[in-house]
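Input/output pair, single chain:
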Amino acid sequence: MTEEQGRMPQGVPMPTHALETGGDAGTDLFAWSPGEVAAPHPTFTARAAIWRDQRAGLISIAEAQRRSAAIGAVEAKPTSNGQGTPGKSRPPVARPRHERPSPNESRQYAQPMATTAARDDRLTPNAKAFLQVLRARCGKGRETTITKGTAGNIMARSTRTIRRYLVDLVRFGYVELETLRNSRGMHLGLIVRITDQVAPFYEEARGLAKWLAATPRAIFEPFKSVVASRNKGVTLLSSKNQNQIINTSAPLKNADTGQQAARERLLRKDWAKAVPRS
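Output:
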């Protein structure tokens, strides 16, 4: 043995040649077995148990892969500023209702509409509010053009939520939808039409006739104080719309409008012209 080999610590196995014999020949690696075998890593033990369950048919391969990948994975710690791990998307944090921004100022208002949708328990409160916005966009008509993105910005909701609102409104018969296309067939938006369930009853001839038939005659007499029964077509004065006394100025009350008074004024005018002035 050389001096360098003699400096090696005791107990470290050294490779040996098959032809060498003797005390200093070294140790055969195939015949060497350490006294203490190190225990496997806990992660390896846990994963081995998972795959043993999969081989036994207790779980599927996809479930075994999911459990195996979850072992040893670093969990993202929540931060105080509400931001997640850099490079990973996170769902938006919902604000409390009292901390949300107020809506923008607008002069938009809704025309008269029935309260049928407001009393419909099948609709969500936001779907009812969206129907009121659609009624306001229709103006005096019954049709408007809108996109789901624009409606989402108005209602502060996603396009998927707006789609659910429209599906419910169409399902229960409050609106009708049609796709708006250009000359090339490209989709530009949606044409929304409100139905008779949203419009007030007096806009429909059948509803108005039904209301007039159900209203007592003593209550519904709008032209009783306007048209006289003896003189057809003559408008009568009423204390509710005009006063019976004609208010005039004071000089007009004292003035004489007769023919003799007119002649006297003319003579006085001619006499004033004939008098010479100094």
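The first strand starts at residue 143 and ends at 146. The CA atoms of residues 227 and 233 lie 6 Å apart.
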